[in-house]
Amino acid sequence: MKIQILKDQQNLIEGYEHVAMNGAELDLSRFSNNECTEIIADSILDAVPVQYIAQSLKMLIDKLRMGGKLVIGGTDLRLFCKHVLNQTISPSDANVIVSQCQSMTNLDEIVNLVNTTNIKIETTSINGIHFEICCTR
Predict the structure, then answer these.
(1) CA–centroid distance for 44 within its chain
(2) Minimal CA–CA distance to 35: which of 72, 3, 73?
(3) What is the chain's mean pLDDT, rounded?
(4) What is residue 68's predicted lDDT score, i.e. its pLDDT?
(5) Phi, psi for 98 (deg, rounded to 5)
């Protein structure tokens, strides 16, 4: 089974079960542990308060089969600040981004968190202010 976790109903990927986040709440109870071959949660870290990121990551990992793929991502706080200071993001765009995020972390912090789990990081990438980490269990 393949799951795509979304903050809203945009950018749906065909062939995936879609799970919409309800605010900061992520409910994966309809999926059994070790059931998923792939989970795409490329913007989930923006929707989860920082104090619940480790718990949310564990929940996602529990749903993955051995050899399963996990993609997580979010807005990098350091890059966001850099873009605001360099005026490549306008104040009005910055306000929109901040209002849509429950939290912002950074790639290094999430890499360190992932490295404490039983999954292996395959790739990391940064595009503008957004980062993604691709992992395999």
Answers:
(1) 3
(2) 3
(3) 92
(4) 96
(5) -60, -40
Give the chain's end-to-end CA distance (angstroms, integer). Answer: 15
Q: Yes or no: say if 39 and 63 are a contact pair by the CB < 8 Å rule.
A: yes
pLDDT digits (tens, 9 = 90+) for 69-110: 999 999 999 999 999 999 999 999 999 999 988 899 999 999
pLDDT at residue 24 above 90?
A: no
Q: What amino acid occupies position 131?
A: F
Give the whole-angstrom CA distance, residue 52 versus residue 24. Answer: 9
The distance of Cα 70 from the centroid of its chain, to the nearest Å, equals 9
Q: Is 102 exposed, middle or buried (CB count within 10 Å of its CB: 0-12, 13-18, 19+)?
A: middle
Listed in order, strand segments (DSSP E) in the chain are: 2-6, 17-20, 36-41, 64-75, 120-127, 130-136
Question: Whole-model pTM?
Answer: 0.89
Q: φ, ψ for residue 111 (rounded to 5)?
A: -60, -45
Contact 89, 129 (CB under 8 A): yes
